[in-house]
Amino acid sequence: MLIDSHCHLDADEFAADRDAVHAAARAGGVERILVPAVAVGNFPAVRDCAQRYLGCAAAYGIHPLYVNAVRESDLATLRQWLAAERPAAIGEIGLDHHVADVDPQRQAFFFVEQLKLAREFGLPVVLHVRRAVDAALQALRRVRVAGGIAHAFNGSRQQADEFRRLGFILGFGGALTFSGSTRIRQLAATLPDDAIALETDAPDIPPAWLGGGRNTPGELPRIAAELAQLRGISLAAVSALTTSNVRRVLPGIG
Fold first, then answer.
1. Which H or E run includes 93?
2. What residues does 65 pair with on adjacent strands?
3. How far apart are alpha carbons 116 and 121 in whole angstroms?
C-alpha cells in the first residue's frame, strides 16, 4: 500500500481523464490520496474528489500564492468548511518567497490565521514552504499545531530536524528522481525512517522520466522505488514506513 500525501486530483489538467487517472493509481497500489485545496473557490471540487473517489481525503486551505486574490472573509468561509466537513488536514497553506509579486506580509497574515484555525480545530496542516523555511518555522513555533507534512521539502538537515521536533514529517516526490537534486536525495536517503512521506504534487513536479510532462498519482510506485534504492531498503519497506508515517500525522486520511 502507498499513500500519495499531496495530489491535486481536482486540477483542470485532469478534467478529461480524472476517473482513469484515479483508477490507474489504485491499480498501481496507491490506496490513499490527500487532495489539498488552494483557495475557497476550489473547496467544492476537492470535496467532490474526496466523496467520489475511493481512498481520497480532503484538505482545505488558502495557498500562499493565492493570497493576492482572496479576502479576509475567506477565512470565515474556511472556518465553516472545517466545521462542516472535518477534513483530514488544513492545507495547502504556508509561505512562498520565490514569487516576487505576492506580498510576503499578506502571506504571513493568512498563514498565521490558518495556523490558528488548525489549533482551534485540532487539525494537522499541509505546508507549502518555498524559500521561506525559517520564516515558516518561526510562525510554527509561535502558533503550535498538531503537526502535519512539510510538502516538497527542500531545506537543510537542521531545518528538517526542527520540523520533526514540531511534529512534522517531510514530503518527497518527483524531485528526488533527478540526479542533480543532491540535497533532496541526500535527505531522502538519510533522514530517520519516521521522518518521510511520499507525494506526487500531481499534476506538478513530474519525475525525471516524464520529461516535464503531466504528473499523475500513478507515478508514485516508481518514485517509491527510487526512494527505496536511495535508502538501500526494499520497496515493501518504503511503502510500509511512509504509510505508517502519513497515518500517524494525518489520522483522518484513513
1. strand 89-96
2. none
3. 9
Buried b (16+ CB within 10 A) or exposed e, 110-119: bbebbbebbe
Position 228, amino acid? A
CB burial of residue 173 (10 Å; 0-12, 13-18, 19+): buried
Contact 110, 102 (CB under 8 A): no
The conformation of residue 43, written as its DSSP 8-state character, comes to: H
Q: Which sign, positive or negative, has the C-alpha torsion 49, 54, 60, 63? A: negative
- Residues 67, 108: Cα–Cα separation, whole Å: 10
pLDDT tens-digit map of 18-71: 999 999 999 999 999 999 999 999 999 999 999 999 999 999 999 999 999 999
pLDDT digit string, tens, across residues 181-191: 999 999 999 99
Cβ atoms < 10 Å from Cβ of 247: 14
157 conformational bin, left if phi > 0, alpha if psi -120 to 50, beta if neither: alpha
Is the overall model pTM greater than 0.85, yes or no? yes
Average pLDDT over residues 91-104: 94
- How far is Cα 65 from Cα 36, in angstroms, rounded to an integer? 14
Q: What is the largest CA-CA distance in the chain?
A: 49
How many whole angstroms separate alpha carbon 133 and alpha carbon 119? 20
